[in-house]
Design a protein that fits this description.
The protein is built from 15 helices and 13 strands. By secondary structure, the chain is an alpha/beta fold. Strand 7, helix 8 and strand 8 form a beta-alpha-beta unit. The protein binds glutamic acid. Glutamic acid binds next to helix 13.
């Protein structure tokens, strides 16, 4: 094998554009964040872009572009998923990496924030090509990742199989004596390779626990409520499957193949099986097809966006007919979209709280792999529930004491923790 491609450090590490920058600045102003710490947290610690060649099944070579943005590690090793997507670029990973820093801080995990991935559509490649692309990317990443340095996990279009290839490739690059104590270099691994029971459903489960907490605080019964979901991949489908026992009605679902509706409630279990077999919700016999506008306008108690970011905009926010948006996706609401939701008094449980279940169980997996332990589902679920509920309580209490919205409150919780650690540690040299 040849040498790893050179790392490119682009001009600026700042993520201060669009919604995340406004969210960050708003919370920093409200809490009076120390200006030095504001400067530190306002940019990523490192950003890498890799261009690497991979041989395709027919013998020709394609060049891929991969990224890893490491935003901050003052609380612990960099942590965050890898996304394979045709719209992935440095700007997106910059935003997503910063969101991981806030998310792990709110959940009180000993992790920092990172994100990365490859700009490509995995549907265009065979399984063996995907394996070679993944392995070559890990080779390019080299020692930018590591079990106590930067720990990738699944994100959009990556799964336990991809994590297995990452772990296997990484372990071949460390000295033999270190191999068996390095399996915590990734989380979201298959169970047989040191993965954690319950990791697959953890993000959806965290979403459901935050909805339970929200409903409990308001004396609302989930049994009589209804909701709609956008995106029926891992997170959306698990949230719906886990809401099913509450007899909450799933009125409509939309994904990249279309939208469906049933006033009596769609069956999330049958729909999950359908999506697995057919690649999307379109054609599901248990519902009727509706268009995008009708989906968005469906009257329901809550909306779970669980697809790509940037879906709730100045155009779509006025169409929503719900009381609550539970952000299962990362960054589903644009700055303008959020302003409209606020004007319309639609509540938001922000992404950095609502979807923290995934990284919380990643932390549990990391601990188990580090200690060669395997916990049972009850233990994992109990710890997830306690951790995400404590995070929920912190954000709710901050919203009350600062008299602000939940997203700003979530940032205040994260920034306060980061600020106090920086103050104690000081800035080198
Ligand atoms: N990709 C997930 C997220 O956005 C999980 C990250 C992790 O487990 O490290 O939170």
């Amino acid at each position: 094998m040849g040498a790893a491609p050179p790392k490119v450090r682009p001009e600026s590490g700042s993520f201060r554009r669009d919604a995340p920058s406004v969210q960050f600045e708003r919370a920093a102003d409200l809490m009076g964040l120390d200006p030095d710490i504001r400067r530190i947290l306002g940019s990523a610690a490192s950003e890498s872009i890799f261009h690497f060649p991979v041989k395709m099944d027919d013998g020709h070579v394609e060049i891929f572009t991969g990224y890893r943005v490491q935003h901050n590690n003052v609380l612990g090793p960099y942590k965050g998923g890898l996304r394979f997507h045709p719209q992935a670029d440095l700007h997106l990973f910059r935003e997503l990496a910063a969101w991981m820093t806030w998310k792990t801080a709110i959940a009180d995990l000993p992790f920092g924030g990172a994100k990365g991935g490859i700009c490509m559509d995995p549907a265009d490649y065979s399984v063996s090509e995907l394996e070679r692309i993944t392995r070559r990317f890990v080779y390019a990443l080299g020692d930018s990742i590591g079990p106590d340095h930067d720990i990738p996990a699944p994100d959009m279009n990556t799964n336990p199989q991809v994590m297995a290839w990452i772990m296997d490739t990484y372990l071949t690059m460390v000295p033999p004596q270190q191999r068996l104590r390095s399996t915590h270099v990734v989380t979201g691994k298959p169970i047989g390779l040191g993965g954690c029971v319950g990791r697959d459903k953890a993000t959806g489960q965290g979403v459901v626990i935050t909805i339970e907490n929200w409903a409990r605080d308001r004396g609302i019964s989930l049994k009589d409520s209804s909701y709609i979901v956008q995106g029926f991949g891992n997170v959306g489908s698990w949230a719906a499957r886990l809401l099913h026992p509450y007899e909450t009605r799933l009125l409509a679902v939309e994904d990249h193949t279309g939208a469906i509706h049933d006033a009596a409630g769609l069956d999330p279990l049958a729909l999950s099986r359908w999506v697995e077999d057919h690649g999307g919700v379109a054609g599901f016999p248990g519902g009727v097809a509706i268009d995008h506008e009708t989906f968005l306008g469906t009257q329901a108690d809550f909306f779970i966006p669980a697809a790509l970011g940037g879906q709730i905009t100045e155009k779509t926010a006025p169409m929503l007919n719900v009381q609550l948006v539970v952000e299962a996706a990362n960054g589903p609401t644009t700055f303008e979209g959020e302003r409209i939701l606020m004007q319309r008094e639609i509540s938001i449980i922000p992404d950095i709280l609502a979807n923290a279940g995934g990284v919380i169980v990643s932390y549990l997996e990391w601990l188990q792999s580090k200690r060669s332990e395997a916990w049972d589902l009850e233990e994992v679920e109990g710890k997830l529930r306690r951790k995400i509920t404590a995070a929920y309580d912190r954000v709710r209490d901050a919203a009350q004491s600062y008299g602000t919205d939940w997203r700003t409150a979530a940032y205040v919780v994260a920034l306060s923790r980061l600020e106090s650690v920086y103050k104690e540690r000081g800035i080198f040299p």
